[in-house]
Design a protein that fits this description.
The protein is an alpha+beta fold. It has helices at 2-21, 28-31, 48-61, and strands at residues 24-25, 36-45, 66-75, 77-85. It contains three helices and four strands; from the N terminus they run αβαβαββ.
């Protein structure tokens, strides 16, 4: 039982810490007060939610705190780009 409690606690803490580092979508007005640090792209998504998740993951991996999706196209699978900010 103690092992199960430890595992559950570790999972809860890792989920909380991941949320702290995740890049968040930003509005145009929010982006004006942030520094643009680059652009990320993703492809192969089957839904818009999946595309946004891929772009958010790449933004976070690049050290961004925010992102703004600038394009999305669909040729059987979705692809898109996002400007990333810090």
């Amino acid at each position: 039982m103690k092992t199960i409690n430890t595992v559950v606690a570790a999972m809860a803490l890792s989920t909380l810490s991941f949320g702290v580092f995740a890049a968040q979508p930003v509005t145009a007005s929010q982006a004006q007060s942030m520094n643009k640090i680059g652009v990320v792209s993703a492809d192969g998504a089957s839904t818009l939610d999946a595309l946004e998740a891929k772009l958010a993951e790449k933004a976070a991996a690049a050290g961004a705190s925010g992102y703004s999706i600038t394009s999305a196209t669909n040729n059987n699978k979705l692809s898109g780009t996002a400007v990333i900010y810090k």
